């Protein structure tokens, strides 16, 4: 991803030096978790980053395919989990750790990593730190030591909620994320409840909705279908063209780091008057404008099949988060 998208508006930043062609130091990082998400993130890291250098990959299964792939590519590995990572000679040099395990395991990992002074990018639904969705314009202050990547459904849909919210207040937003059952590993299946809670919360906090709801569907269809997402927002009556253009602009922004992110069909609108309100279970009656956005997300195929767009958008966003944290650190050092 182009790093200037995440640069802060300071008089002189490390990003400006990078844009002028100067060589910048890279921050070493590690990935905990050698499953689907961890391995795909590893491949993205190895394909290149201006500010990150992958130094270690951590797992708990010595026969893990992800660990084997890391070793083949010259990356230091350990199958002894967090304890093994802390014993590696390179550990003191590592500045950022990506956790691609589970919400339960992350709580223990983060406690140790914070004790050791590491920055953390959390790809689990644990949500110990603030949410980070790249195109929504999160600004991370220097006190942030752990950022959470929400969920795959959140990364795909929250930008759209935010796109509507920058035009008019969103009273209610509901998202439905449908992913191939094949792309949902044991970690995803074990975290379904956390997925819905974390995504709904982030729809409100990051997306700007007054109330959020999230649903995930594991699609068993064969051959596997790519990720599809539906976003409904309820707002006051407003010019439809303003919302449509805002959504199109946001889709283009997300495509800058997830090329397979696209609209499935035109943005749809439906108006409800007080004489014919929309009734939503658990919310009540609503009169105003309902906006419906239908997306599909095709993966880049770095490691996982292209139908695993749900995992691809998570790893692409996580890499962007790590780059933002690294840039922030470099800017503080240069200041």
The CATH superfamily of the largest domain appears as NAD(P)-binding Rossmann-like Domain
Q: How many β-strand stretches?
A: 14
Domain count: the total is 2
CATH class placement of the largest domain: Alpha Beta
Strand order of the largest sheet: 3-2-1-4-5-6
Helix content: 25-40%
- The ordered string of helix (H) and strand (E) elements is HEHEHEHEHEEHEHHEEHEEEEEH
Mean pLDDT: 90
Residue stretches low in confidence (pLDDT < 50, at least 5 long) are 1-19
Envelope shape: globular
By CATH, the topology of the largest domain is Rossmann fold
Instruction: Give me the number of helical elements.
Output: 10
Description:
This protein is an alpha/beta fold. It folds into two domains: about 5-150 and about 310-335, Rossmann fold, CATH 3.40.50; about 150-305, Dihydrodipicolinate Reductase, domain 2 (2-Layer Sandwich). About 35% of the residues lie in helices and about 25% in strands. It has ten helices and 14 strands. The chain has helices at about 15-20, 35-45, 65-70, 80-85, 105-115, 150-165, 185-190, 190-205, 240-255, 310-335; strands at about 25-30, 50-60, 75-80, 95-100, 120, 145-150, 170-180, 210-220, 225-235, 260-265, 270, 280, 285, 290-295. Strands 3-2-1-4-5-6 form a six-stranded parallel β-sheet, with helices on both faces. Strands 7, 8, 9, 10, 11 and 14 form a six-stranded mixed β-sheet that branches. Strands 12-13 form a two-stranded antiparallel ribbon. The model is unreliable at about 1-20 (pLDDT under 50).
């Amino acid at each position: 991803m182009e790093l200037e998208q995440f640069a802060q508006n300071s008089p002189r930043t490390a990003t400006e030096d990078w844009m002028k062609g100067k060589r910048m130091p890279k921050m070493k990082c590690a990935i905990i978790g050698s499953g689907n998400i961890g391995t795909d993130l590893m491949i993205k890291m190895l394909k290149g980053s201006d500010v990150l250098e992958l130094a270690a990959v951590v797992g708990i299964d010595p026969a893990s395919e992800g660990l084997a792939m890391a070793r083949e590519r010259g990356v230091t590995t350990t199958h002894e989990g967090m304890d093994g990572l802390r014993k590696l000679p390179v550990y003191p040099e590592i500045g950022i750790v990506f956790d691609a395990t589970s919400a339960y395991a992350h709580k223990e990992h983060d406690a140790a990593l914070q004790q050791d002074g590491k920055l953390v990018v959390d790809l689990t639904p644990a949500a110990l730190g603030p949410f980070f969705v790249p195109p929504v314009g999160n600004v991370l202050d220097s006190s942030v030591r752990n950022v959470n990547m929400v969920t795959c459904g959140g990364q795909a849909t929250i930008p759209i909620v935010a796109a509507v919210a920058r035009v008019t207040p969103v009273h209610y937003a509901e998202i439905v994320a449908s992913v191939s059952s094949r792309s949902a590993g044991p970690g995803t299946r074990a975290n379904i409840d956390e997925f819905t809670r974390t995504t709904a919360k982030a729809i409100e906090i990051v997306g700007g909705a007054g109330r959020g709801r999230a649903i995930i569907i594991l699609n068993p269809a064969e051959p596997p279908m790519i990720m599809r997402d539906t976003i409904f927002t309820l707002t006051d009556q407003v010019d439809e063209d303003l919302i449509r253009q805002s959504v199109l602009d946001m889709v283009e922004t997300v495509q800058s780091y997830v090329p397979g992110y696209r609209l499935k069909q035109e943005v749809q609108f439906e108006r409800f008057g007080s004489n014919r309100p929309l009734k939503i279970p658990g919310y009540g009656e609503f009169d105003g404008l309902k906006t419906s956005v239908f997306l599909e997300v095709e993966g880049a195929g770095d490691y996982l099949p292209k139908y695993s767009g749900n995992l691809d958008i998570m790893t692409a966003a996580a890499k962007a988060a790590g780059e933002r944290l690294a840039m922030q650190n470099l800017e503080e050092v240069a200041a």
